[in-house]
Automatic annotation (TrEMBL):
Species for this entry: Methylohalomonas lacus
Asn/Gln amidotransferase domain segment(s): 328-476
Protein name: Aspartyl/glutamyl-tRNA(Asn/Gln) amidotransferase subunit B
Domain of life: Bacteria
HAMAP family listed in its UniProt record: GatB
Record's subunit section: Heterotrimer of A, B and C subunits.
Gene: gatB
Coiled-coil segments: none
Any one of the GO BP annotations: glutaminyl-tRNAGln biosynthesis via transamidation
Entry EC no(s): 6.3.5.-
InterPro entries in the record: Asn/Gln-tRNA_amidoTrfase_suB/E, Asn/Gln-tRNA_Trfase_suB/E_cat, Asn/Gln_amidotransferase, Asn/Gln_tRNA_amidoTrase-B-like, GatB, GatB_C_1, GatB_Yqey_C_2, Gln-tRNA_amidoTrfase_suB_CS
Family statement: Belongs to the GatB/GatE family. GatB subfamily.
Function (record text): Allows the formation of correctly charged Asn-tRNA(Asn) or Gln-tRNA(Gln) through the transamidation of misacylated Asp-tRNA(Asn) or Glu-tRNA(Gln) in organisms which lack either or both of asparaginyl-tRNA or glutaminyl-tRNA synthetases. The reaction takes place in the presence of glutamine and ATP through an activated phospho-Asp-tRNA(Asn) or phospho-Glu-tRNA(Gln).
């Protein structure tokens, strides 16, 4: 039997406000445990939550970016459950009247096609604290610094049909929230994490199968691995005569498998009801239009502009606009270089990306600035250095040896363009390689590359290769 995978994602995005959603406590990451949990965050008697206006602003900004329906009035509710890292015994969330309604986002699939994924809703809520299970051998520690950190939970329709589609959707949303500057998207710190609802059904069936929820996936790779494992598990279970039960499962990346965590709750299990301490949130048109005017150029629009303005391929534009930081870096390098967008793109996606990956460095910590890369490209284009020598200069910049012109001067890397010097070099190569020269004269054009290489080797890469090529042809034709 052929099976079809059905996937819906719930993505939790921590909003990058300085204070929490209902209190003035700091949201800074890395503080001493339980040092940033106020009386409001702990739900102590007599305290009242006060909504952070900036949280609403960032949620509306996201809604506008996905062309979503925006609620004129949204209501906060209490989601009741009991867990050690939820000190109040309930989480303030939204249920029937979320701030962001139906929207959609386009994703690029691995086969080069695009697909629209509909978003059901995006609602605001407070984050829970964090249970730490590996600090003590006989007990669990609880850190409540995260309690009350503002979240927007983005719920998709179950329209993804493979783990690769789910990862592409997640990557697209990750790029979007960073473009909007509503979240740092740091997955290692929990700022962007995902719950995946996964089920299978016979191919062609309209009825959904029983789903399992894979909880707290915090990397694109783990999302794919966890979903692929879960799909295989469910198919094997059904084909052996068993039944999939609705439950919450955890993914163990060390074993590459999911395991049962608890039975999956339904909405009624949480006993949602409007929070009596918070008034409904009214959003007027002027507030929405004010935020709309602040929207940056979004990834899809920037990608299309790169194609049209810089004459880049769809692939190159997609890579360069995958993150706002990379797109900004590229554009700064092009401006500094005085144009030459394709060359800047090649260096950004080539040498720069390779160095970042090799050393495990984020772009923000690159030792080669966008200005320096642009200056390097400019020196290639004005023939101060060759493309090959430029790689030596790049390595020197990466190691902090100074500015582009300084490195070229200090290392004596200027390209030899003097016609007399190059002519002497070509004469020496012809004299030293009579057999190859004869082969060229007899019609073997490929040997010319060898002769050019010999000239470049003798000049230690400093000779202008185009001049060498032209002079060799002149003398041998």
């Amino acid at each position: 039997m052929e099976w079809e995978t059905v996937i819906g994602l719930e993505i939790h995005v921590q909003l990058n406000t300085k204070s929490k959603i209902f209190s003035g406590s700091s949201t800074a990451y890395g503080a001493e445990p339980n040092s940033q949990a106020s009386a409001v965050d702990l739900g102590l008697p007599g305290v009242l939550p006060v909504l952070n206006r900036e949280v609403v602003r960032k949620a509306v900004k996201f809604g506008l970016a996905i062309n979503a329906e925006l609620a004129g009035q949204s209501v906060f509710a209490r989601k009741n459950y009991f867990y050690p890292d939820l000190p109040k015994g309930y989480q303030i969330s939204q249920y029937e009247l979320p701030i962001v309604g139906r929207g959609a986002i386009d994703i690029d699939l691995p086969d080069g096609t695009r697909k629209t994924i509909n978003i059901t809703r995006a609602h605001l809520e407070e984050d829970a604290g964090k249970s730490i299970h590996d600090l003590y051998s006989d007990s669990t520690a609880v850190d409540l610094n995260r309690a009350g950190t503002p979240l927007v939970e983005i719920v998709s329709e179950p329209e993804m049909r493979s783990a690769a589609e789910a990862a592409a959707y997640m990557k697209t949303l990750h790029a979007l929230v960073r473009y909007l500057d509503i979240s740092d998207g740091n997955m290692q710190e929990g700022s962007f994490r995902c719950d995946a609802n996964v089920s299978v059904r016979p191919a062609g069936s309209e009825q959904f199968g029983t789903r399992a929820e894979l909880k707290n996936l915090n990397s694109f790779r783990f999302v794919e691995q966890a979903i692929n494992y879960e799909v295989e598990r469910q198919i094997a279970l059904i084909e052996s005569g068993g039944e999939v039960i609705q439950e919450t499962r955890l993914y163990d990346p060390n074993k590459g498998e999911t395991r049962s965590m608890r039975g999956k709750e339904q909405a009624h299990d949480y006993r949602y009801f409007p929070d009596p301490d918070l008034l409904p949130v009214d959003i007027d048109d002027s507030f929405i239009e004010e935020i709309r005017a602040e929207l940056p150029e979004l990834p899809a629009a920037r990608r299309q502009r790169f194609i049209e303005q810089y004459e880049l391929s769809d692939y190159d534009s997609g890579v360069l606009t995958a993150s706002r930081e990379l797109a900004d870096y590229f554009e700064t390098s092009v401006t500094t270089a005085g144009g030459h967008a394709k060359v800047c793109a090649n260096w950004t996606m080539g040498e720069l990306s390779a160095a970042l990956n090799r050393d495990g460095v984020e772009l923000s910590r690159s030792t080669v600035s966008a200005r320096q890369l642009g200056e390097l490209v400019a020196r290639i284009q004005d023939q101060t250095i060759s493309g090959k020598i430029a790689k030596t200069v790049f390595d020197a910049l990466w190691n902090g040896e100074g500015e582009v012109d300084q490195v070229i001067e200090d290392r004596g890397l200027k390209q030899v363009t003097d016609t007399g010097a190059i002519e002497q070099l070509v004469d020496d190569v012809i004299a030293a390689n009579p057999d190859q020269c004869e082969q060229y004269r007899n019609g073997n054009d490929k040997v010319l590359g060898y002769l050019v290489g010999q000239a470049m080797k003798q000049s230690q890469g400093k000779a202008n290769p185009q001049q060498v090529n032209e002079l060799l042809r002149q003398k041998l034709d």
